[in-house]
Design goal:
Ankyrin_rpt, about 100 residues, Ankyrin_rpt-contain_sf, mainly alpha
Amino acid sequence: MNSQLTDAAKQNDLDGVIQALKQKADPDIRDRSGLAAIHYACQHQNPQILRLLLQAGADPNLQTSDGHSPQELTLWHGEVSMGVQSQTSQKMLKLLKLRS
């Protein structure tokens, strides 16, 4: 069940994330690479998955095994044009800050 959540998030599969959370998967469980579902949501720039994970109790400050926060991943993987964050990145950062 827990690996189902990280696998679904890694695949950017909203329905899979919903199903895993309905089955009470731990939102902070990490996969073999040291990433949790929240990290994959930030990498994929998916605010829907991020919102679901935060509502399920995911830690918005959970660091990767390399010490990177969800906020950092959002910035790194967001579209940046002339130093301006994309609207999606801005929305995700607001979600993360509200839960911090």
